[in-house]
Amino acid sequence: MYYDFWNLSQAPFSQQQDLALFFESELHEEALARLLFVAEEQKKCSLFSGPSGTGKSLTLKACQQILTRSSCQCEYLDLLGLGEEEFLWQLCAQLRLGPAHDTPLPQLWRQLTDCLTGMQLTQGRLLLLLDHVDLSRLEALHAVERLLHTGNQQFPSLSLVLTMDEASSPQAERAAQISDLSIELTALDSEMTENYIQHRLSLSGCADSVFTTDAIKEIHRSTHGFPTRINQICDLALLAGYEQNLNEINAEVIRRAQREINGAPAHVNRISEAIQGV
């Protein structure tokens, strides 16, 4: 709705997992290098942790994209809310094993172990990127542990990356005991935040500095450098700038956008009113 006003070709701060907008900060570059190391060195299990909103999922997908050019098969699977049967069924489907809609759980395990056995005989390699492991159901966690145990005992070509939000959770502590490598992603600092914003704007067709220096400082202060929160507040601020016909976004616009996000009432020019009026 504000693309033409800001000379944009697309929404620069969309919350969609768009690899075309992936910002490889120093933090993400290091995490990505470690993920690729897991694949290259055939590490058994690695724990990838960091607060929600730091970009772990997008980093996993960037890793998967890079590995499409390698001999290592890489599969991404989101375990959010999954139980054991759902997890195994989706994993078998990802590996193109053709599970039927009503395939029983023991047969799913058999399909998976047969696939891994065949891969072992052909010296194939498989890296499973399992996202939101800590947000899956308990039986799915047990299935991951069983898969880890089976892989360690029978299939040295199988590597797993377990992604969790909190490194101190009981699930993460358990994963840390059996992992070969720990990978952690933290929030962006103030300079990275500025580079992130300009990177997204540039890829969306806008080379100008839409946000003032004070606005960027306010963005970092209010979001603590979490990319997901940066996207949210910047998107709302661009909408406010469009509604008020502004030439740039200053710190006050950012503060007002933050109040809208927090649900606090504003006296004039509410961004929510702009949304309703478009």
Order of SSEs:
HEHEHHEHEHEHHHHH
Question: Cα-atom Rg, whole angstroms?
Answer: 22 Å
* Helical content band: 40-55%
Tally the beta strands. Answer: 5
Number of helices: 11
Strand order of the largest sheet: 2-3-4-1-5
Gross geometry: elongated
Class computed from helices, strands and strand pairing: alpha/beta
- What are the segments in which pLDDT stays under 50 over at least 5 consecutive residues? 274-278
Our estimate of the beta-strand percent is: 5-15%
Main β sheet profile: 5 strands, parallel
User: What is the average per-residue confidence, as pLDDT, rounded to a whole number?
Assistant: 88
How far apart lie the N and C ends? 7 Å
Structure characterization notes:
The chain is α/β, with parallel strands linked by helices and 278 residues long. Helix 1 (26-40) crosses helix 2 (56-67), helix 8 runs parallel beside helix 10 and helix 9 (227-243) crosses helix 10. It contains 11 helices and 5 strands, in the order αβαβααβαβαβααααα. It is elongated. Helix 5 (138-154) links the parallel strand 3 (125-131) and strand 4. The chain is 51% helix and 11% strand. The chain has a 5-stranded parallel β-sheet, sandwiched between helices.
